[in-house]
Specification:
single chain; about 500 residues; alpha+beta; Ubiquitin Conjugating Enzyme; 3 domains; five-stranded antiparallel beta sheet; 10 helices; 18 strands; globular
Length: about 500
Amino acid sequence: MATTSELQKTEINDLRNYFQDNIRILSSIGQFSYILKIRADQYDVSLTLQLDESYPSKAPEIIITAPRLAPDQILVVQRLLQTYCETVLNQPMILLIYQRLLLWFDENHIQSLNINSNNTNQSANVGHLSPQPSTNSKNPVQQIHSSTSRCEETENEVSKKNSMKTAEDVISRIEWDDRLDSRYFRVGYIDRFLGLQEKAFNEFDFKVDLATISDRHSSILAIPKHRIQYFKYNNEIIWDKETRTDLMFGSTGNQETIYDVIDRHDHLMENNHSFLTSQDDTPIELDHDENIEESRPLPRYLTLTDGVHRPNFYLSIPLNDPNFLTNAITYRDYLLSTYPTSFSSRTTTTDSKNFHLTLLTLHLETVTLFDQCVTVLKRLQEEIRYHCSYPDRICVDFQGIETFYDRTIFIKCQQNRRLENLRNLIVERFCEQIEKQRINGMFLAGNYAEFIPHVTLLKCKRKFSSICPQEMKKEMSFGRQTIDCLQFASIGRSDSDEQKSISIFKLDLS
């Protein structure tokens, strides 16, 4: 008779063949013998199942990640699946759980995203994973396929009324229109494991055959075009597959085209950019005898509200590694003692607890909105923890120093794709929640389209290169930091006019 371990291995192998690229399998993770993450791209949902050594006599722990669902819906479906597990114990149940999840979407009339799947033939026989008979006249897979067909027919009828330009048309326009700057465009797409992701347009290689390259490729960032969901210009959605928005060409009846969008953004930036701002949104003190270079381009922001709303809260990675803190404090004290009159009073506090790497800044018009931010973070906790932990923890390296506008001195963070993905994930989820819950008075203000992870040290009264030019040439290693938590903090001013940050909430990721 096969042991529990052998039964698990057999089912895992069958699942791998069944789902192919839509499943991620981790083994021997802590107390769990397996952790499975299954993607259902047609509903933009991921099903995470944690199996211990007692499975299948014990039900797996279930986690649902679904940006399109409200928190109470996610709770309902998780409880439904957990209860369903109790009825199918002592047999392979992963595929049954997955099918029950899809059936729930069908029962609740949640429209599919009409995303082509690599698993169109998954109904084929796969060993003992063949679907179990149902008491209904149609089994769950048949019902789901029937519902999907109805949705596709409806969408086809709509598309006949007003033909929409494709994602390929948008890509071609950005690449070949000399009047468009590709640096200001971003692409939202479905990742098989992480869900909805967003990256800069220039990070992709659209000249290769995207349909043949995985988005997990080590050197080429490329995706099949059918997984592209939207395009943004300066964080305004200008093409969206689901809502049939087309501000690039105006093909779906929109009155604006991309040139109108660019003119509107440029006009807003010129009106709102009344003072020069450093990357951490603290005003830079200028000597009266110095002029700002007129040729310096206006910064491009993640949102349109930055000129009106200044950030008063931020989400960051607290830096607590002893080696990093020692090196950072030692170097900062060296600068202060060597050039005692060169630095602004608005500088980083001497408290070592204040060292952090900012991921996101916000403007909250009322204090009560803080509770909603904390609620959003708690909902994202499992998704963020998974992103930061697997296959191993994100570790950030700090090497050398740099400046913003030759004024703000910061410790450089080495390029880290997973850190950038984490930031994009959090920004996207916050935007989704603000729109979904119609939260008024919460703005993602102060976030630049180009994310430059850094740790601020000091602010100069004059140009840093003129004060101590030799410092920029030094090769310094400040250490590393493992991401084990995030902190949500307020930005204020103390009586001495020194920037004061107060940590209000910490999200544990350990």
